[in-house]
């Protein structure tokens, strides 16, 4: 049974008020709130286990190392990677993409080589590649979408040329909520011998992910969007690919031997983990993954699907409502505009009613250009949101609309 009352009790922040109104937190696409077990994991580890990992002979260091490495195993299991060698801890999705873009471009791409991204990418999956394009003269190709916000597989196929080296696409759009057909995208890319990076920032909290079933070459996500702490994220990479890529940053942890003449690098995954890792964050991330696993990703997906369906139906009752993104496969993100009301005004006035939504371009300016708008209001739901909160949102929107 999906015990929403119990779930909401696990997130203390949900019972606070803002401007004297109960908080209705619908900005989960930006970051999720944290269950008590995640916050307690952070304080508990600092209070009772804190010591730098990997290098210490002493008890605390070994205990901290064990927790950190056990967390890697928790992540491995959560996304069904083959081996913990394939799980690299990073600071988040952005750093994971930059790591791959930089090392992949350096080792696998030459001037004129091409990377395929989609029109609905977050800036972190555009700019990371553009930085490499500027350095190496590589070229970005863009998968277009239809009016419903679905990528065109036929157009995608046409983008492949003998110079295509990698595809880098979002699993779920942070603006449209579209769940992209990543298995298909991977299958087509592999038919051209091209690897695929999947940006899982918006999928990991909402749908079960199996990197082997997807046959993803790289899969990246942020801890803070899946009820974990900020500052920690994951890069999954197939061992064969991670082996081929050079180190990203130099420092401690990532080396085997160092002399002034020559340095040899550590084995995977440590080759990509320069410096003291966020071992407090990794433990807390594992707690977050354990938390959602205990509820069940299938249950969360079904519950949020119900919420999204309900919200789509209720929002459409509002006069002047324009919803951006009506893909057949849609996650719990809804972007909209009402009449001529500026997204910023709508967001600001909803805030005064205790409703937290996001406004603006959502770090997806090229998508805004494609839609011919400057920005949207975005409501994004998490496992703890309710239909009652959606009713509050709809009533809030109607109230704001009357003011214009
Ligand atoms: N990709 C997508 C699809 C996202 O939604 C986000 C966060 N909004 C990111 C990448 C970047 O994540 P982070 O800021 O945690 O690195």
From TrEMBL:
It catalyses: (sulfur carrier)-H + L-cysteine = (sulfur carrier)-SH + L-alanine. Pfam families: Aminotran_5 (PF00266). Its EC number is 2.8.1.7. It comes from the Bacteria. Its cofactor is pyridoxal 5'-phosphate. Keywords: Pyridoxal phosphate, Transferase. One of its GO terms (molecular function) is cysteine desulfurase activity. Residues 24-393 form the Aminotransferase class V domain. Belongs to the class-V pyridoxal-phosphate-dependent aminotransferase family. Csd subfamily. Catalyzes the removal of elemental sulfur and selenium atoms from L-cysteine, L-cystine, L-selenocysteine, and L-selenocystine to produce L-alanine. NCBIfam families: sufS (TIGR01979). This is Probable cysteine desulfurase. It comes from Bacteroides gallinaceum.
